[in-house]
Amino acid sequence: MRIFYHADHYWPHLGGVETLMRFLAEGVVGRGHEVMVIANRLSGVPDEETHGGVTIRRLNMNAPLLQKNLPQVVACVKQYERLRNEFQPDVVHHHFCGPSAYYAFLHPFARTITSVHDPLGMTENTFSARALKSSQAVVAVSNFVADRCRERFPDLKTQLIKNALPAKDLPRTPHAAHSGRFLCIGRMVRDKGFDLALHAFAQMGGGASLEIIGQGPERPALMELASQLGIEVSFPGALSDEEVLQRVDACAALVMPSRWEECFGLVAFEAMSRGRPVIAARWGALPEVVLDGVTGLLFEHENVGDLVEKMSMLRDDPDLCALLGEQAADAPHRFPYARMISEHLNLYRAVMEAV
Questions:
Q1: Residues spanned by CATH 3.40.50.2000 within the chain?
Q2: Which end of the chain has fewer CB within 10 Å, C or N?
């Protein structure tokens, strides 16, 4: 099969959707199929390249739309259509929740699948909603998303295919001896709730450390907040995959204080697969990924006092922290990567046969 993927962004742009797409595309190629990915341009990255067997083409899609630059929009439409026609896909698979949905809606393809990676906060008139309703099948990446899809668009053919990632080649390291070493990872935007982690850390009364990995517009404000709270927090910025893995292996637990309704939580999955428990907000799909009292601890959404209690619990009880981490390591078996690839391929074949 020839699969044409369309997304707002793709590797090496950092984010959960981009990470999932990369390993989905490479997994499909690994099964003997051809894949082309269309995504937005990324500074410092070639517009045309091949990575992991995946053909990648980056176009200037979003900027002309946001700037209302009609000539550039028309030029991008022609480029988009030319690439898709030259590739001659059997199936088009969309992964978006941003402006680039315009290009999919403008020239719909007969055999189209759309994966939903957001809580469906869109209005009926957005291009994302229109493209979604014109799809032959919709993939929900969690039960939370599937319920939202069926509630909002009951006529769509929604199929649940939970996210997964391939296992890391490196063996897991033993759990950190010091249970007070906490870690946050993600894009530094308000939706991630890292300010809540800072407030909670400030109230813990010592015996712990906190590191927040990532870049984003909120980074200066978060660093200023840490200073105002009188706490020492490490902000190393964006790190390589290898460096992030080292930080995960060195921590006692990952903290995910998301304000946004996470539609899966790949960061939580990755930490658990390394044998680290996760303290996560009881919000969105996170309770599906982090099992409360089994693979981590859940706290009430935006409740700093509850987050303080959960972080203190793991700091003060190293045995509990280690036990939850050991049980968390089962994550790759709960969300098997090979099954995710097979379920997508089966869906592609079903859509091909139906049209």
A1: 2-164+336-354, 181-334
A2: C
What pLDDT score does 130 carry?
Answer: 77
- pLDDT one-digit tens code per residue, 166-193: 987 766 777 765 668 999 999 999 999 9
Name which CATH class applies to 181-334: alpha beta
State residue 97's pLDDT score: 64
How far apart are the C-alpha atoms of 283 and 296, rounded to whole Å?
Answer: 14
Question: What per-residue confidence (pLDDT) applies to 178?
Answer: 62
Structure tokens, 15 = 């984010």
Write down the pLDDT at residue 206.
Answer: 84
Q: Are 264 and 278 in contact (CB under 8 A)?
A: no
Q: Which CATH number fits domain 2-164+336-354: 3.10.450.50, 3.30.300.130, 3.40.1280.10, 3.40.50.2000?
A: 3.40.50.2000
The mean of the pLDDT values for the chain is 91
Over residues 195-239, the pLDDT tens digits come to 999 999 999 988 899 999 999 999 999 999 999 999 999 999 989
Strand order in the sheet with 253-256: 234-237, 209-213, 181-185, 253-256, 278-281, 296-299
Residue with tokens 């189209």: 112
Most confident of 10-24, 240-254, 296-310: 296-310
